Amino acid sequence: MKYFTPRSYLVWLAVALGLESTSCNKYFTPHGQATYTKFQIDSTLADDPTFIRLYEPYKQQLDAEMNRVIGYADTALTKPSGVPETRLGNFFADALLAEGQKRYPDAVFSFGTKGGLRIELQKGNITVGNLFELMPFENELVLLELSGDSVLQLARFIAATGGQPVSGLRMRIDKGKAADITVAGKPVERSRTYKLITYDYLANGGDNSRGLSNPVSRINLGEKVRETLITYVSEQTQAGKHINTQLDGRIIHNQ
Questions:
Q1: Would you list the domain boundaries of the chain?
Q2: What's the distance, Cα to Cα, between the start and end of the chain in Å?
Q3: pLDDT tens, 107-161?
Q4: Record's PANTHER family (predicted)?
Q5: Which residues pair with 144 in a beta bridge?
Q6: pTM of the model
Q7: DSSP string, the chain
Q8: How many whole angstroms from its chain centre is CA 100?
């Protein structure tokens, strides 16, 4: 399924306005005599009926896709501050791992950050637009193969930041330190490697993440994170399931 993006919006708008690009130039250039009018962009600017008629069919198509219901949440997926584990974070990380494992079954855990999740999902219908709002960025999935030492460094980052969205990894935070770290149900071994599903922003050092900068190997999967979420929710629905993510103690914070 294809989704509207800012770039695709600009393409159809340029075509509609009579602009086109040359074969070796990605920029649009006007044909004929160009004229310019300066408008003050504020509340006094009246709607232009001609322009509205121009874009309204595309807006209706976009609105229909964004409002399309693809799933149902049995409980609100929230991300309260000051807690190490959230329903929204668990849902997000579980979706990344499930989708990543379709292509790489030996991927054993996933990782994201709380700051990248822009909205909470309320109980009830989940639309395509909800998931665009949740992850509005152009981030793409990445498979990283990490050494055991890098996994431990990542766990220390998670502990120092009070917990982050993970799946397949479990740990305890004790006075800001990582303890009892397991991946796929087993203690982390420094001598082996582990395959992680995350996204390029974090793999490139975003959010000051630690442990991801020196992977044994890296594969860019070429799939937008929001497309992953849409696919995950849609397939749960096709299987007759609702989204019912719960807290399961994957990260515990000792006071």
A1: 6-66, 70-254
A2: 46
A3: 999 999 999 999 999 999 999 999 999 999 999 999 999 999 999 999 999 999 9
A4: 5'-NUCLEOTIDASE (PTHR11575:SF24), 5'-NUCLEOTIDASE-RELATED (PTHR11575)
A5: 196, 218
A6: 0.80
A7: -----HHHHHHHHHHHTTEEE-TT--SEEE-S---------STTPPP-HHHHHHHHHHHHHHHHHHT-EEEEESS-B---TT-S--HHHHHHHHHHHHHHHHH-TTEEEEE--GGG--S-B-SEEEEHHHHHHHS-S--EEEEEEEEHHHHHHHHHHHHHTT---EESEEEEEETTEEEEEEETTEE--TTSEEEEEEEHHHHTTGGG--S-SS-SEEEEEEEEHHHHHHHHHHHHHHTT--B------SEEEE-
A8: 13
Residue 229's Cβ-count burial label (10 Å; 0-12, 13-18, 19+) is buried
The answer to whether residues 3 and 65 touch, using CB atoms and an 8 Å cutoff, is: yes
Give the architecture-level CATH label for domain 70-254. Answer: Alpha-Beta Complex (3.90)
